[in-house]
Amino acid sequence: MAKEKIDIRLIFVLTSIMIISALILSIVYQGTKPLIKEHAAQAKKEAILDVLPGAVKYKELKKGGLDLYQGLDGSGNPVGVAFQHQGNGFQGTIILMIGMDIANKKILKVKVLDQLDTPGLGARISEEEFKSQFQEKSFTDAFVAKEDVDAIAGATISSQAVSDILKNAIYKVEQAYGGGE
Protein backbone atom coordinates (compact mmCIF):
# COMPACT_ATOMS: atom_id res chain seq x y z
CA MET A 1 0.00 0.00 0.00
CA ALA A 2 2.72 2.47 0.91
CA LYS A 3 4.39 1.86 -2.41
CA GLU A 4 1.20 2.85 -4.31
CA LYS A 5 1.05 6.19 -2.44
CA ILE A 6 4.65 6.97 -3.42
CA ASP A 7 3.97 6.14 -7.07
CA ILE A 8 0.88 8.38 -7.12
CA ARG A 9 2.79 11.25 -5.46
CA LEU A 10 5.66 10.78 -7.87
CA ILE A 11 3.30 10.91 -10.84
CA PHE A 12 1.65 14.03 -9.44
CA VAL A 13 5.02 15.77 -8.84
CA LEU A 14 6.38 14.91 -12.28
CA THR A 15 3.15 15.97 -13.99
CA SER A 16 3.21 19.27 -12.09
CA ILE A 17 6.83 19.89 -13.11
CA MET A 18 5.97 19.13 -16.74
CA ILE A 19 2.99 21.52 -16.74
CA ILE A 20 4.99 24.33 -15.09
CA SER A 21 7.89 23.82 -17.53
CA ALA A 22 5.57 23.90 -20.52
CA LEU A 23 3.93 27.08 -19.20
CA ILE A 24 7.30 28.79 -18.69
CA LEU A 25 8.48 27.78 -22.17
CA SER A 26 5.26 29.13 -23.69
CA ILE A 27 5.66 32.45 -21.90
CA VAL A 28 9.31 32.78 -22.97
CA TYR A 29 8.41 31.91 -26.58
CA GLN A 30 5.62 34.49 -26.67
CA GLY A 31 7.98 37.09 -25.21
CA THR A 32 10.74 36.44 -27.73
CA LYS A 33 8.53 35.95 -30.79
CA PRO A 34 8.52 39.67 -31.76
CA LEU A 35 12.32 39.83 -31.41
CA ILE A 36 12.73 36.72 -33.57
CA LYS A 37 10.43 38.22 -36.21
CA GLU A 38 12.32 41.54 -36.12
CA HIS A 39 15.66 39.76 -36.45
CA ALA A 40 14.40 37.71 -39.42
CA ALA A 41 13.14 40.88 -41.16
CA GLN A 42 16.51 42.60 -40.62
CA ALA A 43 18.40 39.55 -41.93
CA LYS A 44 16.16 39.47 -45.03
CA LYS A 45 16.73 43.18 -45.67
CA GLU A 46 20.50 42.71 -45.39
CA ALA A 47 20.37 39.70 -47.74
CA ILE A 48 18.36 41.64 -50.34
CA LEU A 49 20.80 44.56 -50.32
CA ASP A 50 23.76 42.14 -50.33
CA VAL A 51 22.68 40.37 -53.55
CA LEU A 52 21.94 43.65 -55.33
CA PRO A 53 25.30 45.46 -55.57
CA GLY A 54 24.80 49.22 -55.67
CA ALA A 55 21.37 49.12 -54.04
CA VAL A 56 20.84 51.29 -50.97
CA LYS A 57 17.14 50.52 -50.61
CA TYR A 58 14.50 48.35 -52.21
CA LYS A 59 10.81 48.20 -52.88
CA GLU A 60 8.63 45.12 -52.78
CA LEU A 61 6.96 44.00 -55.99
CA LYS A 62 4.26 41.43 -56.62
CA LYS A 63 4.64 40.06 -60.11
CA GLY A 64 3.19 36.85 -61.47
CA GLY A 65 2.37 35.67 -57.96
CA LEU A 66 5.98 36.12 -56.79
CA ASP A 67 7.34 38.34 -54.04
CA LEU A 68 10.22 40.23 -55.64
CA TYR A 69 12.41 43.04 -54.33
CA GLN A 70 13.58 45.73 -56.74
CA GLY A 71 16.87 47.26 -55.61
CA LEU A 72 17.32 50.99 -56.04
CA ASP A 73 20.52 53.03 -56.01
CA GLY A 74 20.95 56.39 -54.26
CA SER A 75 19.21 58.18 -57.14
CA GLY A 76 16.24 55.80 -57.13
CA ASN A 77 17.33 53.97 -60.30
CA PRO A 78 16.73 50.19 -60.42
CA VAL A 79 19.85 48.02 -60.07
CA GLY A 80 18.23 44.59 -60.20
CA VAL A 81 15.68 42.29 -58.64
CA ALA A 82 16.12 39.99 -55.64
CA PHE A 83 14.14 36.79 -55.22
CA GLN A 84 14.14 34.30 -52.36
CA HIS A 85 13.83 30.73 -53.55
CA GLN A 86 14.36 27.28 -52.08
CA GLY A 87 14.78 23.68 -53.08
CA ASN A 88 15.96 20.33 -51.81
CA GLY A 89 19.60 19.81 -50.94
CA PHE A 90 21.36 16.61 -49.93
CA GLN A 91 20.10 16.66 -46.32
CA GLY A 92 17.36 19.25 -46.31
CA THR A 93 16.04 22.45 -47.78
CA ILE A 94 18.41 25.06 -49.17
CA ILE A 95 17.12 28.64 -49.14
CA LEU A 96 18.80 31.21 -51.40
CA MET A 97 18.46 34.94 -51.94
CA ILE A 98 19.27 35.62 -55.58
CA GLY A 99 20.08 38.98 -57.14
CA MET A 100 19.23 39.18 -60.85
CA ASP A 101 19.66 41.66 -63.67
CA ILE A 102 16.51 40.91 -65.66
CA ALA A 103 17.35 43.29 -68.54
CA ASN A 104 20.79 41.73 -69.16
CA LYS A 105 19.64 38.22 -68.19
CA LYS A 106 22.35 37.50 -65.65
CA ILE A 107 22.75 36.67 -61.98
CA LEU A 108 24.22 39.45 -59.89
CA LYS A 109 24.93 37.58 -56.67
CA VAL A 110 23.76 34.61 -54.58
CA LYS A 111 23.47 34.34 -50.80
CA VAL A 112 22.71 31.13 -48.92
CA LEU A 113 20.16 31.95 -46.21
CA ASP A 114 19.75 28.45 -44.82
CA GLN A 115 21.04 24.93 -45.49
CA LEU A 116 21.39 21.68 -43.55
CA ASP A 117 24.06 19.91 -45.55
CA THR A 118 27.09 18.14 -44.10
CA PRO A 119 29.61 20.51 -42.44
CA GLY A 120 32.88 20.53 -44.39
CA LEU A 121 31.22 19.08 -47.49
CA GLY A 122 27.79 20.22 -48.70
CA ALA A 123 27.78 23.14 -46.27
CA ARG A 124 30.59 24.62 -48.36
CA ILE A 125 27.89 25.95 -50.70
CA SER A 126 27.83 28.93 -48.30
CA GLU A 127 31.47 29.74 -48.97
CA GLU A 128 32.31 32.70 -51.19
CA GLU A 129 34.55 30.57 -53.42
CA PHE A 130 31.55 28.48 -54.50
CA LYS A 131 28.93 31.27 -54.63
CA SER A 132 31.13 33.69 -56.58
CA GLN A 133 31.08 31.48 -59.69
CA PHE A 134 27.43 32.45 -60.20
CA GLN A 135 28.12 36.20 -60.36
CA GLU A 136 27.54 37.49 -63.89
CA LYS A 137 26.36 34.02 -64.96
CA SER A 138 23.95 34.20 -67.89
CA PHE A 139 20.39 32.97 -67.54
CA THR A 140 20.96 30.86 -70.66
CA ASP A 141 23.80 28.80 -69.13
CA ALA A 142 23.13 25.12 -68.46
CA PHE A 143 23.66 25.24 -64.65
CA VAL A 144 25.01 21.69 -64.54
CA ALA A 145 27.53 20.64 -61.88
CA LYS A 146 30.87 19.51 -63.33
CA GLU A 147 30.03 21.14 -66.66
CA ASP A 148 29.49 24.90 -66.35
CA VAL A 149 29.35 24.88 -62.52
CA ASP A 150 32.41 23.94 -60.47
CA ALA A 151 31.11 21.31 -58.05
CA ILE A 152 32.43 21.00 -54.52
CA ALA A 153 34.53 17.84 -54.19
CA GLY A 154 32.47 15.24 -52.34
CA ALA A 155 29.34 17.39 -52.55
CA THR A 156 28.15 17.13 -56.13
CA ILE A 157 24.54 16.70 -55.02
CA SER A 158 24.62 19.95 -53.01
CA SER A 159 26.36 21.77 -55.86
CA GLN A 160 23.75 20.57 -58.34
CA ALA A 161 20.96 21.42 -55.89
CA VAL A 162 22.09 25.07 -55.82
CA SER A 163 22.27 25.07 -59.62
CA ASP A 164 18.76 23.60 -59.86
CA ILE A 165 17.37 26.17 -57.42
CA LEU A 166 18.94 28.98 -59.45
CA LYS A 167 17.69 27.63 -62.78
CA ASN A 168 14.18 27.24 -61.35
CA ALA A 169 14.27 30.74 -59.86
CA ILE A 170 15.35 32.22 -63.18
CA TYR A 171 12.51 30.42 -64.94
CA LYS A 172 9.93 31.68 -62.43
CA VAL A 173 11.17 35.28 -62.50
CA GLU A 174 11.32 35.34 -66.29
CA GLN A 175 7.76 33.99 -66.43
CA ALA A 176 6.67 36.71 -64.00
CA TYR A 177 8.28 39.33 -66.23
CA GLY A 178 6.82 37.79 -69.39
CA GLY A 179 10.17 36.53 -70.66
CA GLY A 180 12.14 39.60 -69.58
CA GLU A 181 11.83 43.31 -68.86
UniProtKB/TrEMBL annotation:
Domain of life the protein comes from: Bacteria
Subcellular location: Cell membrane
Keyword annotations of the record: Cell membrane, Electron transport, Flavoprotein, FMN, Membrane, Phosphoprotein, Translocase, Transmembrane, Transmembrane helix, Transport
Coiled-coil spans in chain: none
Plastid found in the keyword field: no
Spans through the membrane: 6-29
Enzyme class: translocase
InterPro entries listed in its UniProt record: FMN-bd (IPR007329), Ion_transpt_RnfG/RsxG (IPR010209)
Entry's EC annotation: 7.-.-.-
PTM sites of type FMN phosphoryl threonine: 156
Domain named FMN-binding: residues: 89-173
Cofactor(s) listed: FMN
MF annotations from Gene Ontology: electron transfer activity; FMN binding
Biological process according to GO: electron transport chain
Subunit structure: The complex is composed of six subunits: RnfA, RnfB, RnfC, RnfD, RnfE and RnfG.
Biological role stated in the UniProt entry: Part of a membrane-bound complex that couples electron transfer with translocation of ions across the membrane.
HAMAP family referenced in this protein's UniProt entry, alphabetically: RsxG_RnfG
Protein name per its UniProtKB record: Ion-translocating oxidoreductase complex subunit G
Taxonomic classification: Bacteria, Bacillati, Bacillota, Clostridia, Halanaerobiales
